[in-house]
Structures are given as structure tokens and as C-alpha cells.
Amino acid sequence: MLPLDPPQLITLDAVGTLFGLRESVGTVYGRFAAATGVQVDPAALDVAFFKAFKAAPPCAFPELEAAQRAEAELRWWQGVAAETFRRAGVLDQFADFDRFFAPVFAYYATAEPWFVYQDVLPALKDWQAQDIPLRVVSNFDSRLYGVLEALGLAPFFKEVWISSEVGAAKPDRLIFERAVASYATSQVWHIGDSWEDDVLGAQGAGLQAIWLRRDRPLLPEPVIHETLAVPQLTDLTDAQVILRGIAS
Q1: CATH number at residue 72
Q2: Cβ-count burial of 26 within 10 angstroms (0-12 exposed, 13-18 middle, 19+ buried)?
Q3: pLDDT at 59 exceeding the cut of 90
Q4: What is the DSSP letter of 185?
Q5: What digits encode the pLDDT tens for the residues 180-226?
Q6: Is the bond leading into 171 cis (omega within 30 degrees of zero)?
Q7: What span, in angstroms and rounded, lies between the C-alpha atoms of 138 and 11?
Q8: Which of 1, 24, 228, 244 has a CA-to-CA distance to 193 between 20 and 30 Å?
Q9: Residue 83 shares a structural domain with residue 204
Q10: Which secondary-structure segment (H or E) carries 162?
Q11: Which DSSP helix (H) or strand (E) runs through 208?
């Protein structure tokens, strides 16, 4: 484990770090599609979704006013979903894709599709007890506020920074710089599960990056394009151990 300086602030990614999916996106999309009479293999949708998501532009809207942002978020995700079904070869089977997608979008704003990882609450409580400020830095959209509330995580975070509001998405250094503007970046830990978005993005902004490598069979393995020595964790319990070791 590489040495770390004690943090004055800890920022964390959201999906894949604090909470995960109970079912794959393909399973959920397939179930909602079946209710409209469109039959499609969930496994094929999973493959198509990851390709569509990767090909999409960032979910960030620097030119929009706050009043326009919610509609832009919906349209962004609808575009990803439409591309997913197009790649799966069934997009033309939907009579009204807008009408189909609205409840799918709303579903992911609830607690139902998500679960909190078992190590998260103990870690958050421990850091809170040590008076370490915590913030979320995520490429999610404004639904994240409600999801954090529904999952009981909101009270731990004084600030939540999301790409759609900042106008920049990880790994862009701007979202990190905005989130930690009142701190020296070298005094901030950022913990996240994405090699590119969280590790490379945080390091590019001068933060101490920590890679959280959870066992998540529903998601593809990250592609690492370079060798970079960073601390790696299997869960947030490891981060607590590191912090106690620094303090002792």
C-alpha cells in the first residue's frame, strides 16, 4: 500500500462506490420494454448499454440555466437508452419511445434499483466521528440528491457535486477543482471505482486518488491503459485502517 497523507477532506464517487445496482441495466430495461410488448435479451441490452454509455458525450450542460437542466438530463439519458435499444436491434419496435422511457428514468430516481454496500455506513460514521468533511463528486444527474436521501446517505455529505450542474464530468479536472476549491488539493482523498474517471481524474486535479476495486459482476472490468501506482482497496474498511494507521 502506497503512503498517504492524512486527509482534510474526503470526496467519494456515488454509483459503484457508495451504492450499486441490484440488477443490471439490461435486466431493468428489458423488463420495462416487455411491459410495452418489446421482447429483447437482457444480456444483449447490457452489452449495448455499456457501448452506448461510453460513446455518449458527458452528462454536463455548462450553457444551460438551472431551470433547463432537468429536461436536459432526461433527454441525455433517453438518448443513451435509445442508442442501447438501437444497438440491440429493437428500437423500431417501440410505438412511442418517449412514453416508454419516462417511467424508466423515474425508476432510477428511487431507492428500489439501488443497494448500499455493507462497508459504506460504518466508514462514513467513522469519518464523521473524526470530523473529516465528506463530499460526493459524481457524473450522476440531479436525481442523485433524492437517491442519497432515500438510501439514508445524505446526512453524511455537506456538499454534493454532480457533472450536470458543474458543467464538467469526471475525469475533467474542473469538477474536482470546484468540489475542493476551499482545500489544498494535496490534502484531499478521492475514493472511487473508476480507473479513468476517479483515479486519473483525481490525480490530474492534484488530489490523492484511491482506487476502490469492488467485486461487481454486473459491470465490465475497467480497461487500464497505463501502469500507475495508486492505493487500491477492496472496500471502504481498508480506507479506515489506512486512516487509523496514519493517525497512530
Answers
A1: 1.10.150.720
A2: buried
A3: yes
A4: G
A5: 999 999 999 999 999 999 999 999 999 999 999 987 654 455 555 55
A6: yes
A7: 10
A8: 244
A9: no
A10: strand 159-162
A11: strand 208-212
User: Tens of pLDDT along 118-156?
Assistant: 999 999 999 999 999 999 999 999 999 999 999 999 999
What CA–CA distances, in Å, run from 168 to 36, 86, 176, 196? 35, 27, 9, 15
The verdict on pTM exceeding 0.85 is yes
Concatenating the DSSP letter of every residue in 5-33 gives PPPSEEEE-SBTTTEEESS-HHHHHHHHH
Among 230, 235, 242, residue whose Cα is nearest residue 212: 235
Name the domain count of the chain.
2
Q: Do residues 13 and 44 share a domain?
A: no
pLDDT exceeds 60 at position 67: yes
Say how far apart CA 159 and CA 226 lie, in whole Å.
32
> Across the chain, which distance is largest between two alpha carbons, in Å?
63
